[in-house]
Amino acid sequence: VLGLLVWAPIADTTYYLHAAYSWVMFVSIFFWIVTVLFFMTYLLQLQLKFYMVPWSLMLMIFNAVATVLYITAFVTCAAAVQPTSWRQWDYNRRAAASFFACLTMVAYGVSTFFSFRAWKGLGSNAATSQVTDHA
């Protein structure tokens, strides 16, 4: 949802006149589509059929790359917002897209942290851990 809130306001402006917004659109739409594909994969439990794929490692790499590219997209979008724009509604939409790009960047960063913990096996809790007696 956050990725959608990044590219939808920009798509409603004259973004094609500014190269910076083309980069933001590419990053946000690409990662939005791939995230929806991963979501559908896990929703339909297709990862169980492709057990040879290291899903936790793949998700960690995906989230880390998304975080880094969203950092560039956020900085680009925030730097390109001009309050003296000749169209006030473009300014509001671009400022909102910049705000949601920041939130999306943070969300992918948090997902990277949890993906790393799952990849390293540190994400177990009392319900999933097994107690062994090493006496």
From TrEMBL:
Main location: membrane
Gene Ontology annotations for the cellular component aspect, listed alphabetically: apical plasma membrane; myelin sheath
Cross-referenced InterPro entries: MAL (IPR013295), Marvel (IPR008253), MARVEL-CKLF_proteins (IPR050578)
Domain MARVEL, residue spans: 1-120
Annotated keywords: Cell membrane, Membrane, Transmembrane, Transmembrane helix
Compartments, as annotated in UniProt: Apical cell membrane; Myelin membrane
Source species: Nestor notabilis
GO molecular function: structural constituent of myelin sheath
Domain of life: Eukaryota
Subunit description: Forms oligomers.
Name of the protein: Plasmolipin
Membrane topology: Multi-pass membrane protein
Keyword Membrane in record: yes
UniProt record similarity statement: Belongs to the MAL family.
Transmembrane stretches, start-end: 20-44, 56-81, 96-116
GO terms (BP aspect): myelination
Cross-referenced PROSITE patterns: MARVEL
